Amino acid sequence: MSKMRYILEISxxxxxxxxxxxxxxxxxxxxxxxxxxxxxxxxxxxxVIVMIxxxxxxxxxxxxxxxxxxxxxxxxxxxxxxxxxxVRANVDRAxxxxxxxYAENEEITFNEDGVYDFSDEGSFELPYDQVLNAVFVDDAxxxxxxxxxxxxxPYRCLGKDKDRVVNLLKSKIERIGxxxxxxxx
Length: 185
Description:
By secondary structure, the protein is α+β, with helices and mostly antiparallel strands. 52% of the residues lie in helices and 22% in strands. It has five helices and seven strands, in the order E-H-H-H-E-E-E-E-E-E-H-H. The strands form two sheets. Strands 1-2-3-4 form a four-stranded antiparallel beta sheet, with no helix packed on it. It has a three-stranded antiparallel beta sheet with strand order 5-6-7, sandwiched between helices. Strand 5 (133-136) and strand 6 (140-146) form a beta hairpin. Helix 1 packs across helix 3 and helix 2 (27-53) runs antiparallel to helix 3 (58-96). It is elongated, with a radius of gyration of 22 Å.
């Protein structure tokens, strides 16, 4: 097999999608989502109980409880969008300060032994047997270097070789699948 060399152009959107995937597919992230979903409903219940204990007028309690119930339902439905906006804002804030969480342009090479990554920040070699997990999503593959860090490989950067690279990775990497499987190991 010859070396397969590609230029990875990681965008802010790629990085945000990776972070949202992390949040939704690992134990800690799911707990954070659950706690965030329960935050407003819990506060709402406490507010209504306090109003009852303070003997506030029943009609006002009913109106407040109804409003808080609707707000809580909307909160629970939209929490992932809210969290994505938060991630996006953090990335934008860091970029405004000149910090980057990802290299915008990297060169990546796949061969029989492993993955070689070259960027402005440096280079590294990642033998396939050291990849903790490979997670294939709709528009990228995440090659996990450690439980919280992965090499993001957008399929658009692989062009017509996408299937060839995906087949190579699937044949060389032992752990393929969701992050949950990696956490159980």
